[in-house]
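User: I'm new to structure prediction. If I give you an amino acid sequence, what do you actually give back? Let's try with this one:
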Amino acid sequence: METLSYSSSISLINLIESAGDIASVPGVGLDPASVLTQLLVILTGLILSAMFSSSEVAYFSLASSFHRERIEAENQIQSWARVISMLEKPRRLLVTILIGNTFANILTAVFAAVLTGAVISYFGLPELLIYTIEVLVLTFTIAILTEITPKILAMKDPMKVALKLSRFLYFWFIVLLPVTSMITFFTKKIEKSLPAPFNPISSHDIMTIAEMGEIQGTLRGDEREIIENVIEFGNTTVKEIMTSRVNIVAVSTEDTMEDVLTVIREKSISRMPLYEGNLDHIAGIIHSKDLLPYISTSNKDTSINWKVNARRAFFIPATKKIDDLLKDFQREKTHIAIVVDEYGGTEGMVTLDDVLEEIIGDLQEENGNAELLYTRRKDGDYIFDAQIDLDDMADILGMELTTDQDEYETLGGLIYHLTERIPETGEKARFRDLELTVAKVDNNRVKKVRVHVIEEGDHYQKDRPDTESDTESDNDQAEK
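Assistant: Good question. You get back a string of structure tokens that encode the predicted 3D arrangement of the chain. For your 480 residues, that looks like this:
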């Protein structure tokens, strides 16, 4: 593009000289109407050139500045449809912009030369000096007003510029079709004779294309989310999706058959760890279906050695990427893994369902009932389970809550981070635009948290106690 602009500048000088020769014919005067017309044409050429220059930067920078929510909020769907239709033919779009820009610059140069020639003829000025001044002034004007400044402004907000100029550029996109088609045909012929460069598509490009597809209606919202989840899949670690140690449902080697069946019925789970002594000593994995033969026998029969049905446990570190974990599940032919910390102790547990949820979203529990992690009060506040992932909570509240540097992943972890101790029921904390109130604590664990979104004009009072009715209501909902 820069080479073409440089070549155009050289050709402009030749055009200026030719146009000046025409305008320097003796007897040609300075007609006010003619001068005004020439000035208007020069101004029009400069404006057109500036618009084409800014379009070039704006349209070909959209891959890194696309924001679907902003387009919908500003009600610019129709303008965006024009933008997409042109971006789908990038070669033709680029040729349109370059032809339009070149035409505008030539138009400006020719009429500037004609006007300069008329001035030289009328006043009898030295041609070489005046034409040199005109070339310098025109070059400076085109460079500053129609090239550098418009492109810098377009770089600051490519989307805004692209949407504003969509109607203007689309007009030339259609009008110049015969010319652009001919030029595109010849450039393709030349391109075939050259070695093709390798331009890999980045993950960000794929996510941008998916967002464009949703705008156009070729993709549903859930399909776009799946594509984005797959792209981010390889960057997610086991620690981010695992069930923490305190939430693991497991059975002991000391339990009876009756105890084990009771856990299976109450928790409605199909797989659980078997430990010896404590969770740091996992002896295996119990599958509910392996215990079916014992259901018909007496559950209180202590001679039943149900522990022989335990399958080998699969251990992994918390830092393992979940795309590698998925391959491990396939290789080991298992659906569950025990997550260990750097000291070999049990840190958590992860299942195939946890991995799949990262791609397709939340899955229903095996008993057919989805786990209820939050409820909304009549006053607009929320009661969240402390185990809820902050990313899920952010989606529910419609705001950003986490950063890559955060060491906590759940609402409970955030509460501990803010209070730096085990909080008491009713204790409050402030996080960004949220007022967090501990609604339930059980065995030194935060179970439920009341969340109030602070609106403009609200007053945050850290030590303000809840009313008795509020506390009772929170406790009632926390028990559900």
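You can read the tokens as a compact description of the fold. Here is one thing that stands out. The first strand starts at residue 243 and ends at 244.
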